[in-house]
């Protein structure tokens, strides 16, 4: 059997000397390494029935770095491929893992994917094709990834068009295949989590340290373990390719994707619940506005196992919501009746000018005055706090401090409005994450900074608009694979 290692890399700055910390320190991040990596487990599970292949799940956020590299050293002779799912914060660590595999045994094939690679496909492959054999762009890549691994096991590789979403370096240039729609993958093989390493013990320990105490205090519930659940993915702002200016999520070829109806969603939730997961993390980028119809039908068609279970014994569900979705009492009531007890809500800036600069307003585009649209969004922020309190929902609130074009006076205005929102949320805010703006690849802010000739309007004066001008890329990425 040939091993295919699927790695969720750790934050680069935690394992590589000189690597800059690009996000909150992992030890301070309230949802870091508390439960399995859904992306890595999905890809590993998709390979479980490929003849001659043994998928190996490794989460570098809980498996020590030396242990991870040692595993590759020890099993190099039987490794078919090493694959890494990389965000910007973990990309350099991912490259180090792939380069290490190549150094140990050059015949090992390497694959990379996720948001960072999707946003900077050409640059990643141009600079790092020595240690990256294949890359996948977007989300709809589970089937093509499985097909690629199956072909590699047979000793062949077909033309890129056979693997939608793939990108390779060939003939001194990047060759890509368009993505294709595919259903949400739900056939997870949970036994893979502990097949090579004991991940469950550190996951549960982190969960009990970081998540359970706060929910015990605020909700009066004792929780054992958490698990991400994907009943849908997407955000309503992706529909018009109109994401917030700092958003780096690369939604791929489908702005919205979901399981096939309420029955499928409930089966997935029941499956996780039966496996003793009692904290279910709904991973959709936004719930009430994007998946309102699915949520309402789930409530209307709740199965007997759910309705017959006392509320105190049901799993606690958490998810994401925009403030303008949560401010609607009907949405809040639906979420609460479905067992959602905590929501992650971004209240990223307070003043109307800043909301406008960050492309946050969601009022109808026919509204002629952008400042008015932003003011409505701010009002939604305030109402969301009150609505959450009225419906017994806890909030994990996120603020992004700063935006392009901000000066001292505007910063002071933002801080004042944020304090007002925090005051509104007393008793309903379970945790508060405050981040200074750090534009990541894929975001509008990043593109504005790195491709200035491609935009005709600065962000503080309104949403930047793309032109057909030539792209100009930054020069901060190394041009060779790390040693």
UniProtKB/TrEMBL annotation:
Residue ranges of every copy of the Radical SAM core domain listed in the record: 221-475
UniProt-annotated stretches for the region Disordered: 457-483
Keywords for this protein: Iron, Iron-sulfur, Metal-binding, S-adenosyl-L-methionine
Keyword Ribosomal protein: no
Span of domain B12-binding: 17-159
Cofactor(s) needed for function: [4Fe-4S] cluster
Keyword Iron-sulfur assigned: yes
Biased composition regions of type Low complexity, renumbered to the chain: 463-483
Matches recorded under InterPro entries: BchE-like, Cobalamin-bd, Elp3/MiaA/NifB-like_rSAM, rSAM, rSAM_sf
PROSITE patterns (alphabetical): B12_BINDING, RADICAL_SAM
Highest taxon listed in the record's lineage: Bacteria
Protein name, per record: Uncharacterized protein
Lineage: Bacteria, Bacillati, Actinomycetota, Actinomycetes, Kitasatosporales
């Amino acid at each position: 059997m040939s091993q295919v290692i699927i790695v969720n890399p750790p934050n680069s700055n935690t394992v590589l000397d000189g690597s800059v910390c690009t996000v909150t320190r992992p030890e301070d991040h309230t949802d870091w390494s508390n439960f399995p990596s859904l992306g890595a487990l999905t890809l590993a599970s998709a390979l479980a029935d490929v003849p001659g292949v043994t998928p190996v799940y490794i989460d570098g956020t809980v498996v020590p770095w030396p242990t991870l590299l040692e595993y590759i050293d020890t099993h190099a002779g039987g490794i078919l491929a090493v694959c890494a799912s990389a965000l910007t914060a973990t990309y350099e660590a991912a490259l180090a893992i792939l380069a290490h595999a190549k150094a140990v045994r050059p015949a090992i094939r390497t694959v990379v994917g996720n948001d960072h690679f999707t946003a900077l496909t050409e640059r990643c492959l141009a600079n790092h094709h020595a240690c990256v054999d294949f890359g996948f762009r977007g989300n709809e890549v589970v089937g093509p990834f499985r097909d690629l691994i199956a072909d590699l096991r047979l000793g062949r590789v077909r033309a890129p068009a056979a693997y939608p979403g793939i990108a390779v370096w060939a003939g001194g240039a990047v060759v890509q295949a368009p993505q294709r729609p595919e259903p949400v993958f739900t056939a997870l093989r949970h036994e893979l989590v502990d097949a090579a390493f004991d991940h469950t013990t550190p996951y549960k320990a982190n969960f009990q340290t970081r998540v359970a105490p706060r929910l015990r205090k605020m909700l009066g519930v004792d929780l054992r373990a958490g698990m991400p659940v994907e009943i849908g993915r997407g955000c309503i702002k992706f529909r018009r390719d109109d994401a917030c200016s700092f958003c780096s999520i690369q939604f791929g070829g489908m702005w919205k994707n979901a399981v096939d109806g309420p029955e499928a969603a409930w089966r997935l939730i029941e499956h996780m619940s039966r496996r003793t997961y009692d904290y279910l993390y709904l991973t959709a980028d936004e719930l009430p506005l994007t998946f309102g119809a699915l949520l309402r039908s789930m409530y209307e068609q709740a199965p007997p196992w759910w309705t017959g279970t006392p509320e105190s014994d049901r799993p606690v569900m958490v998810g994401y919501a925009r403030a303008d979705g949560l401010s609607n009492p009907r949405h809040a009531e639906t979420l609460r009746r479905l067992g959602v007890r905590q929501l992650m809500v971004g209240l990223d800036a307070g003043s109307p000018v800043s909301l406008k600069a960050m492309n946050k307003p969601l009022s109808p585009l026919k509204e002629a005055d952008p400042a008015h649209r932003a003011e409505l969004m701010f009002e939604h922020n305030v109402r969301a706090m009150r609505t959450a309190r009225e419906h017994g929902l806890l909030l994990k609130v996120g603020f992004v401090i700063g935006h392009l074009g901000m000066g001292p006076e505007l910063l002071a205005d933002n801080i004042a409005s944020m304090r007002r929102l925090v005051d509104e949320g007393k008793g309903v805010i379970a945790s508060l994450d405050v981040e200074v703006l750090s534009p990541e690849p894929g975001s509008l802010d990043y593109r504005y900074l790195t491709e200035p000739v491609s935009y005709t309007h600065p962000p503080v004066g309104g949403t930047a608009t793309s032109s057909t001008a030539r792209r100009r890329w930054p020069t901060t990425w190394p041009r060779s694979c790390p040693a």
